[in-house]
Amino acid sequence: MSSNEIIVVGGGLVGAAIAYGIARTGGAVTLLDQGDVAHRASRGNFGLVWLQSKGAGFPRYARWSRDAVDHWGPLASELAELTGVDVDLRQNGGFWMGFSEKEMVEREAMLAEINADGRTPFEMLDHAQLKARLPAIGPKVVGGSWCPLDGHVNPLKLLHALHAGLKLRGGRICNGVDIREVKTHGSSGFQARSADGRSWTGNRIVLAAGLSNDALASQLGLHAPVVANRGQVLITERLKTFLPYPTNKARQTAEGTVQLGFSVEDVGLDDGTTVSAIEWIAKRAVTTFPLLATVKLVRAWGALRVMTPDGAPIYQESARFPGAFVVTSHSGVSLAGSHAFEVAPWIAGVKTPPPDLEQFAGERFLDPNRKFSNAH
């Protein structure tokens, strides 16, 4: 590898978007991908380009999420033109649905906080107003919220397009790589070493390794506390279109199947499925959309989210080892455009960092005066 190579550790949606963004700046980049044996969050991603729940209590994250949705149209168009892969972007708005007046009141307060700068429009709808837009909802749905900026994509097509685009732009992907050690190399470089003894060197390194970031980051003077959070997802048979918008509980894909989710479970590194969670997701889906009661389920699976203590991303360059970066986020779909168009050029050294990026530093979790919740 050349000495000016940038190594990106982690080939999921976050690492792939970063690597793709570096390549589109003309930078030499190698993506080290553990492959499908990894606890890849991309497999369980619900595919939402979602704005209306991110950033309450963290104004910079709210602004970051708002800017990210504007990148999505250009990113999808660019990937389609370059790779021929249509990631099935549908960004025509999205609905959250509530089952009690208490949920509705809490939701409106949260959205008002997120929309403090007036850039995240939303509308609260009662049952009748919501049913006028989504006729299939059930009588137990009290109401909901609507944001015209939300949407959804196919996350697996997105991952495929980012990998394909990276290679077409001259980047390199090494598959089956389980990085266990990262360290400085020479006077101004870094080395990543895999479990089987292989190594890669470059003058910059990006840790985008999901759950492995917790162990890897500390080796380069960075703090990236992350934990696993399991979500189980169900897929139905193909149906005639009845759900033209994504919701927080179900979305109908471009193929006609309906994706149902999601559970939130603290079970360590277990990415399996359970009867109890599948039953709970299915019952909630039928309560939300009664027409699903007679629909066949064709698949169920579990995957692990990568969660920080507050649910917000970590973006940071090591003060002790400049040229080493950590990037961690559970919003790999929603933030993909920002990762490719804003974070990657900063890492590549061709642009200054986005404003106030230091607010995403991992050291925020060391502040004894702050309390965190990763509810999302």
How do you describe this structure in short?
By secondary structure, the chain is of the alpha+beta class. It contains 8 helices and 18 strands.
Annotate the secondary structure layout.
Blueprint: E1 6-9, H1 13-24, E2 29-33, E3 48-49, H2 59-83, E4 94-98, H3 101-114, E5 123-126, H4 127-133, E6 143-147, E7 151-152, H5 155-168, E8 172-175, E9 179-185, E10 189-194, E11 199-202, E12 204-207, H6 213-217, E13 227-236, E14 250-252, E15 258-260, H7 275-288, E16 297-307, E17 314-317, E18 324-328, H8 336-348
Parallel strand pairs: 1-2, 1-12, 2-8, 12-18
Antiparallel strand pairs: 3-7, 4-6, 5-6, 9-10, 10-11, 13-15, 13-16, 14-15, 17-18
Helix pairs in contact: 1-5, 1-8, 2-5, 2-8
Can you characterise this structure?
This protein has 376 residues and is of the alpha+beta class. It has three domains: 6-80 and 155-225 and 313-365, FAD/NAD(P)-binding domain (3-Layer(bba) Sandwich); 94-148, no CATH class; 227-307, D-Amino Acid Oxidase, subunit A, domain 2 (D-Amino Acid Oxidase, Chain A, domain 2, 2-Layer Sandwich), CATH 3.30.9.10. Helices cover 28% and strands 23% of the residues. The chain has eight helices and 18 strands. The longest helix is centred in the first third of the chain and has 25 residues, at 59-83. The protein is globular. α1 (13-24) runs parallel beside α5, α1 crosses α8 and α2 packs across α8. Strands 8-2-1-12-18-17 form a six-stranded mixed β-sheet. A four-stranded antiparallel β-sheet has the order 14-15-13-16, covered by helices on one side. Strands 4-6-5 form a three-stranded antiparallel β-sheet. The chain has helices at 13-24, 59-83, 101-114, 127-133, 155-168, 213-217, 275-288, 336-348; strands spanning 6-9, 29-33, 48-49, 94-98, 123-126, 143-147, 151-152, 172-175, 179-185, 189-194, 199-202, 204-207, 227-236, 250-252, 258-260, 297-307, 314-317, 324-328. The model has no long low-confidence stretch (mean pLDDT 93). Residues 6-338 form the FAD dependent oxidoreductase domain. GO terms for molecular function: oxidoreductase activity. Keywords: Oxidoreductase.
